[in-house]
Please model this.
Amino acid sequence: MKTKRICDILTIVLFLAVIFGFLAGFLIKEDVKHNGFETKELQTFPSPVTADSILHGVFAEAIDEYFCDQFPMRKSFLSLKANLELALGKGENGGIIKGENGVLAVKNFRDVNTGEYHDFYSAEHVKSAVQNLNSVEERLSSLGVDFTAVLPPRTIDVAASALDYPRAVSDSLNELINETAGDFYLPLTEMFQTRYDAGEYVYYRTDHHWTALGAYYAYAEIMKSFGEEAYPLDYFTFETASDSFFGTTWRNSAFYSTKPDSLAFARFSGDEDYRIEIYNMAGKVSEEHKGFYDRSYLEGLDKYSSYLYGKQVYFKISKEAEPKTERETLLVFKDSFAHCLLPYLSLHYDIVVYDLDADSKGVFSPLDISGNAESLGVDKVLLVYNLENVISTNRLLKVR
Model:
């Protein structure tokens, strides 16, 4: 009886210690908007507290999110939950699958119509988006401008052999695009699958992007589509910029025990002689840089932004070497997959770059592909927009 009483007392003491311990943690710990391992901005204590916010439930909703976001030892508990999901045989957490060799792949994508996340895609939406690109190609062809579209595959497509995911879903998506798109479309999924299965480091394990090596293979195929020859792989030196790179997939997965990736820069002789001009919405140069890489980003969380000075809306790349030589102009409409691809292409072209996801209200519209091509008098147009964006956004439906 005495032993049972002692056990009861210890249980109560332990329970109270946990409750008051976490309470003390909340009181001592400073609120943060960014915790260094998640992409989202965290909820700080809602202020000001007004009668209206209380009556309409705004305060209650905000304070609930605040307790979740500012919870002491948040990283440890998120990781524990993710690993419990694995232990229960689910193989995923938060719509992200963990596969062989620690590869992480997004499984659930946003439905453009409902905003919900699913592990399937709308075939009607994808078909309409690609058909719109067919119209763009027809217009560019009438202007005498070559057009190539690259829709980089998702990690779940490339690393299919390492993941517990129905490959038929990926295959049907790629078959739909291949059947709908004209000759301007450059299919890369099969090539990347083959190289990934052969052990080549073409996609990151913790991020959704292709690596510098993967970008090289895409560059070689793009040059082939333009009827030109790419520089050989051994022309480039791959400089390890960071061996502690964790991408957005890792940050959203809570599989924090996964080993980091290695992020590399593709270097070549004279690459510091290239000029990057970044433009503002008024069409004026706001920044100028030499070289393709901003190493200051390597000290922070967003190491991928070390390519081309972060996510810029409108910029130009040109070669400064003397004597000046006439080069063709390539117009690129892109998302972030183009960032480690553009240094390769700059060996052949002066490049004008528009971010396709930008909501520009300035002197240009990134969605007006043929209009920009005509006004700039470019020789070639390249679109680089990854399949995740094709599935989950309306951007390709809006280009013209």
Summary: Residues 2-28 form the longest helix (27 residues).
